[in-house]
Design brief:
Elements (H helix, E strand, L loop, with lengths): L6 E5 L4 H12 L3 E6 L5 H7 L3 E5 L8 H11 L5 E4 L17 H25 L6 E5 L12 H21 L5 E7 L2 E2 L14 E2 H12 L5 E4 L1 H12 L1 H8 L8
Parallel strand pairs: 1-2, 1-4, 2-3, 4-5, 5-6, 6-9, 7-8
Helix pairs in contact: 1-6, 3-4, 4-5, 7-8
The structure holds NADP nicotinamide-adenine-dinucleotide phosphate.
């Protein structure tokens, strides 16, 4: 059964991919409950769409879980889909004499534990749908190692494993679970990157591909395929990948 309309909860909806997904679902006639810490770009959108509701949620704060769930319940009796997209990125600098190891906590608390908190919020509402779908956003970064991505890559690998295990345990409730692995998307998160981002796409393009792919509820959807192929090569030829990507030591050091 393909669900063409329903109620969707999207986290990280105030900018970038989440905002573009929110527009996609609104245009397709879904009721969208959008969450983030701030409304950001959603402010302008809420003037044009009656089927959009904003519910503030800091996903890293587990003390908000119950209150957010109760607020969602004021707006809907069930969720057909939850797209857990909120996330952040920071890069570890090993040339620093005192590397910022606390970054591991910061990134894991949003990207991994924040996603877990979001599942905690929405699971009872998904169970009330006739055909529920839980979606989490990982990253193509998990397909091969990138320099400085110790925190980000580990958090997204944890998300991927968490979702694949959860898929097993939610099957008995008929909840489908999809893990999305986007490549480089032009958003505020990547606009601070100083390295080249092959096959960079716009957030609207990424959201269109995600929306289309989610209709068939795949276990995973990694895109664009050209980047997947490049990362496949990186995974299978790790020495070559290392020699290409590892930062070179300054000869004057
Ligand atoms: N852009 C890419 O190339 C790319 C590639 C692969 C995967 N991804 C993943 O895609 C997702 C969206 O990223 P993006 O590129 O669209 O980034 P973005 O434009 O920076 O958006 C991030 C969203 O997450 C929200 N957020 C951040 N921290 C939060 C928190 N503690 N609680 C609640 N919401 C929080 C932000 O809203 P507030 O600040 O208002 O809370 C914002 O809506 C992330 O999970 C990212 O890792 C991105």
């Amino acid at each position: 059964m393909i669900m063409d309309k329903g109620v969707v909860w999207i986290t990280g909806a105030s900018s970038g991919i989440g905002f573009a997904l929110t527009k996609q679902y609104l245009e397709a006639g879904w009721q969208v409950i959008a969450s983030a810490r701030t409304q950001g770009e959603l402010v302008a959108l809420s003037e044009s769409y009656e089927n959009l509701t904003f519910v503030a949620f800091d996903i890293s704060d587990d003390s908000q879980v119950q209150a957010v769930r109760e607020t969602l319940m004021l707006h809907t009796a069930h969720l057909d889909c939850a797209i857990l997209n909120a996330g952040t990125c920071e890069y570890l600098d090993m040339t620093d004499t005192d590397p910022d190891w606390k970054m591991m906590d910061r990134i894991m608390s949003v990207n991994f534990f924040g996603l877990v908190n979001s599942v905690d919020v929405c699971l009872p509402l998904l169970k009330k749908s006739s055909h529920p779908h839980l979606v989490g956003v990982s990253s193509q970064a998990v397909q091969a190692a990138f320099p400085q991505a110790e925190a980000y890559g580990a958090s997204k690998a944890a998300v991927r494993y968490f979702l694949s295990s959860l898929r097993m345990d939610l099957k008995q409730f008929n909840i489908d679970v999809t893990c999305l692995l986007p490549g480089f998307v032009d958003t505020p998160l990547t606009q601070k990157n100083t390295f080249s981002m092959p096959f960079l796409m716009s957030s609207d393009d990424a959201a269109k591909r995600m929306f289309k792919a989610l209709a068939s509820r795949p276990f995973e959807f990694a895109f664009p395929k050209r980047l997947s192929a490049m990362l496949w090569a990186g995974r299978h030829f790790p020495k070559l990948w290392l020699s290409m990507l590892a930062p070179k030591k300054d000869r004057n050091d």
